């Protein structure tokens, strides 16, 4: 079975986000970018499936600006076999919407015929949590979102999902799209020799136009603003003082 | 035009807080039709009909809709979509599973975690873990979105809207439910609780988490946790508060042994009063806390619990 893993280049999760003064978005020029943390988990899971003999090949794909190539190289250094870069924007501030991403991914799936797509639950920039579900819809495939455990069992995946009430286990017929949650695994670091080797692994370059997908946004950004800032309050010196302050403000 | 609102139903019960707040979130957009899906949801459908602003309840009581599996429920919503300008639901894990699938089947975008409805096409939502708020205008024919219910007041009761029964689910052969592992608890539900006490990595072990639970029980509070506490196995996954966990906005949020990473703040910084107990006076959580206590939690929490 071939496994396809979409990986997104996003602002590093440690970077303090700054809203641009003109309200057009968030400043992404010269900030540290990394692979979306959930996608590292998806790549790791694909590698583990390969190590367990349940997958033969891992193809990673990223859609966005050409710099997403670095994200793909990271995935290749972790252990993916091949990469596809789909350039769909020139400006690093252009975020391709999940619907357009899903449409491009659907075309890649048509070409590559994977038995499984493993994606992240959520991109930490747009916080949309949608692409995997949209891809499953476009393909008419089953979906298993927010996975904290994945077992491939013949023609199906048995997936434990992190849901509001706790955990839910479902069995989804393959091919399927699985979106991964934080507890699925701990992604490995790429070793230096593997980083070197990754430079020689195949990386195909395509454009959104090659797939005939229109990536123009459905949501026009009217403005981007800073959230209301919360003022720090006071430090209390003791538990007694805390209790009396809480009583004072009627919190208890 | 009208709004189709997918109701959150938990074990046949209407999630009243989530649904009533969603109803008020969409009230300005037109008639609200609430969809209750799943066998055994009769009482939930009847309860939804009592919410002010609901003009009709659609009840799809077929077994095939149980457990809100994405494939049949999305197909059902798409089959109903003809008469609606908006399709929405509270931003629960069920809705986040189903609605993006609906949107793609309709060839429209999804909007997740809407915090304000400006007009029929324009919405606000947080991005970058709530570090920016984006206002977007949709050009899609049908708007599909999930609602961050902490931003809205609950709709009142007293209504008696008609309940209309819908047909059966088509067999999709895609996914089948196997089991739910849900811990029963007498505590209030996390996302709607008036008080939340959360523990972080500082709590140190699953056993010590009893301290957090003891304080919560004294306050009649729900229990939350940071990602680090959940990852370390101190607390179950459904207690995680934050960017990728639950979003809460109680009257009182008590963060114990939590440093205050932006991903955690994303889930609780709209709480009315925030208390932080942390032994590191430099911890970022103090920057958002109304009352900060620099102390060892193993001293402070038992003392606090005994003095309440
Ligand atoms: C993609 C992604 C998503 C994430 N989503 C979330 C999310 O939804 N929710 C979330 O919470 N995090 C999330 N995180 C993780 C987040 O970045 C932090 O790592 C996490 O919140 C830290 O948890 P913590 O504060 O419990 O642990 P730490 O940062 O380790 O802090 C522990 C604190 O306890 C204090 N302490 C230790 N011992 C004591 C003691 N005896 N008495 C008093 N204080 C003590 C320490 O001073 C310290 O401040 C996410 C991260 C990523 C990358
Ligand atoms: N531009 C992209 N390129 C590659 N993968 C993406 C892209 N956007 C989203 N994804 C995948 O879809 C997941 C969910 O993203 P989102 O729906 O934007 O929250 C991510 O974790 C990725 O696995």
Keywords:
heterodimer; A: 252 residues; 27% helix; B: alpha/beta; 5-stranded parallel beta sheet; 18 strands; globular; binds flavin-adenine dinucleotide; binds adenosine monophosphate
Short description:
The complex is a heterodimer of chains A (252) and B (308). Chain A is α/β, with parallel strands linked by helices and 252 residues long.
Could you say which overall geometry of chain B the principal axes of the C-alpha atoms support?
A: globular
* Poorly predicted sequence stretches spanning 5 or more consecutive residues of chain B: none
- Strand arrangement within the widest β-sheet of chain B reads 7-11-6-1-4-5-12
Given the helix and strand composition of chain B, which structural class is it?
alpha/beta
Q: How are the strands ordered across the major sheet of chain A?
A: 9-8-7-10-6-1-4-5-11
What ligand molecules are bound, each kind once?
flavin-adenine dinucleotide, adenosine monophosphate
Rounded to the nearest angstrom, the radius of gyration of chain B is: 20 Å
Average per-residue pLDDT of chain B, rounded, comes to 97
Mean pLDDT across all amino acids of chain A = 97
What's the β-strand tally of chain A?
13
């Amino acid at each position: 079975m071939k496994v396809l893993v979409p990986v997104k280049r996003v602002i590093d999760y440690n970077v303090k986000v700054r809203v641009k003064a003109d309200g057009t978005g968030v400043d992404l020029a010269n900030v540290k970018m990394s692979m979306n943390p959930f996608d590292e988990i998806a790549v790791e899971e694909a590698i583990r499936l390969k190590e367990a003999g349940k997958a033969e090949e891992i193809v990673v794909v990223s859609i966005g600006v050409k710099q997403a190539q670095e994200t793909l190289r990271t995935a290749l250094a972790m252990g993916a076999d091949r990469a596809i870069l789909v350039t769909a924007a020139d400006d690093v501030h252009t975020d391709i919407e999940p619907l357009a991403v899903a449409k491009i991914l659907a075309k890649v799936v048509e070409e590559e015929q994977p038995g499984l797509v493993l994606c992240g639950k959520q991109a930490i920039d747009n916080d949309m949590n949608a692409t995997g579900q949209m891809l499953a819809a476009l393909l008419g495939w089953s979906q298993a979102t927010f996975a904290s455990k994945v077992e491939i069992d013949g023609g199906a995946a048995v997936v434990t999902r992190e849901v509001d009430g706790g955990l839910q286990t479902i069995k989804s017929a393959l091919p399927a799209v699985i979106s991964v949650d934080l507890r699925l695994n701990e992604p490995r670091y790429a070793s230096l020799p593997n980083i070197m080797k990754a430079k020689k692994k195949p990386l195909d370059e395509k454009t959104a136009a090659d797939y005939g997908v229109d990536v123009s946004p459905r949501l026009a950004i009217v403005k981007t603003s800073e959230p209301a800032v919360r003022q720090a309050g006071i430090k209390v010196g003791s538990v007694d003082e805390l209790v009396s302050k809480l009583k004072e403000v009627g919190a208890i | 035009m009208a709004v189709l609102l997918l109701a959150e139903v938990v074990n046949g019960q209407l999630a009243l807080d989530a649904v009533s707040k969603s109803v008020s979130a969409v009230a300005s957009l037109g008639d609200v039709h609430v969809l209750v899906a799943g066998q055994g949801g009769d009482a939930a459908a009847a309860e939804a009909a009592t919410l002010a602003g609901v003009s009709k309840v659609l009840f799809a009581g077929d077994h095939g809709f149980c457990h809100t599996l994405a494939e049949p429920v999305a197909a059902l919503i798409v089959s109903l979509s003809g008469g609606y300008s908006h399709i929405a639901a509270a931003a629960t894990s069920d809705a986040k599973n189903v609605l993006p699938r609906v949107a793609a089947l309709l060839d429209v975008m999804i909007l997740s975690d809407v915090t304000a409805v400006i007009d029929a096409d324009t919405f606000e939502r947080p991005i970058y873990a709530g570090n920016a708020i984006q206002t977007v205008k949709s050009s899609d024919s049908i708007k599909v979105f999930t609602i961050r219910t902490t931003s809205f007041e609950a709709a009142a009761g007293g209504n008696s809207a008609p309940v209309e029964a819908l047909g059966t689910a088509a067999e999709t052969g895609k996914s089948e439910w196997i089991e739910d592992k849900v811990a029963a608890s007498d505590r209030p539900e996390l996302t709607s609780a008036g008080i939340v006490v959360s523990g972080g990595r500082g709590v140190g072990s699953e056993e010590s988490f009893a301290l957090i639970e003891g304080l919560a029980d004294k306050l009649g509070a729900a229990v939350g946790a940071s990602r680090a506490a959940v990852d370390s196995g101190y607390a179950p996954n459904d207690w995680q508060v934050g960017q990728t966990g639950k979003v809460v906005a109680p009257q009182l949020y008590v963060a114990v042994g939590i440093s205050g990473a932006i991903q955690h703040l994303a889930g609780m910084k709209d709480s009315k009063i925030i208390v932080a107990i942390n032994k590191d006076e430099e911890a970022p959580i103090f920057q958002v806390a109304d009352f900060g206590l620099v102390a060892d939690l193993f001293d402070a929490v038992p003392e606090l619990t005994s003095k309440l």
